[in-house]
Amino acid sequence: MDRAEDHPEPPLLERFMRNEVDGPERRRVVRHLLAGCAVCAEVTRRLWTLGDAPRQGGLLDELEPVEELRADAAACHQRSAGFLETGQWGESLRELQRARRLYMRLGDGPGLARLRHLEGKIGQALGAPAEAETALRDARRDLLLEGLGGEAAEALLDLAVLYAREGRSGAIRELAGDLSPILRTPNIRQGVGMALLFFRGLAESEQASLEALSEILRYVRPVAEERTQRT
C-alpha cells in the first residue's frame, strides 16, 4: 500500500494533534507522515503553528537571537530523541518537525542531517523498514557531506542492522564496499575507522550477523553522540 495516498481522516489528524489517539491510530499517522505525504505534513505543520503561543510586538520583536533559536532547536531535537526512547512516537515526530523548522531558519545543515537520521530510527521503531531505509540512506549521505564521518558511520551501521533483520546479506556487502568516503573524512576517530574495517571483514566473510552488527553499533554510537553534544 502507498501510505502517501492512504490519508488519515481529518478528525483523526485533529485528535492526533490533541494527543487523543490510541496506539494503532498514532502509529498509522506517524508512519503516514514518515512516508512523505506533503499534504498531511502541511496540515499538521499548520496545526502545530496555530498551537504555538502567538507573538506580540512588531517585526523586531520576532527576530530571535541566533543563539536562542539554536538552543530551542537543540532542545526540540533532544526531546524528540527522548520521546523515541520511551516509545512516544507521535510526540517524537512532533518535536522533530519543530526542530526541523528551527534548523531550516538557521540554515543548520548538520542539524537537519542529524534529524534525518533520527527520522530513520523512528521508522525502525514503528516497523516501517522502507521509510527507515530511505531516511538512513539520506542521513548517511548528508552527514558525510557535512564532514561528520563518525555520525555517517553510525547511520551506515544502522542501515546494516536493518538489512540484517531482513536477511539482506547482499545489501550489507554493498554497504561494506562503500566505506572509503567515510574513512577519508578528516575528523573520524581511529576507533570508529577500525570498527568499520572490522564490519567490512565480517561482511566479506558473510559473518555479519545481527548480533555482531549490533555490538559494533553499540561501540560506535557513543562516539558519534559525544561529537553531537560538542557541535
Task: Give a description of the structure.
The chain has 231 residues and is mostly helical. The protein has a domain at 128-231. It has 13 helices and no strands. The chain has helices spanning 10-17, 23-34, 38-51, 59-62, 66-85, 89-106, 109-125, 129-145, 149-165, 169-176, 180-183, 190-204, 210-230. The protein is globular, with a radius of gyration of 19 Å. Residues 48-63 and 227-231 have low confidence and may be disordered.
Question: Which key terms come to mind for this protein?
Answer:
disordered C terminus; globular; mainly alpha; 231 residues
- Unreliable stretches (pLDDT < 50, length at least 5) are 48-63, 227-231
Rg calculated over all Cα atoms = 19 Å
| SS element count, helices | 13
The helix content is over 70%
What overall geometry do the principal axes of the alpha carbons give?
globular
Structural class category: mainly alpha
Annotation, overall tally of beta strands: 0
The arrangement of helices and strands along the chain is HHHHHHHHHHHHH
Summarize the main sheet. none
| Mean pLDDT figure | 81
Question: How many angstroms separate the termini?
Answer: 40 Å
Strand content: under 5%
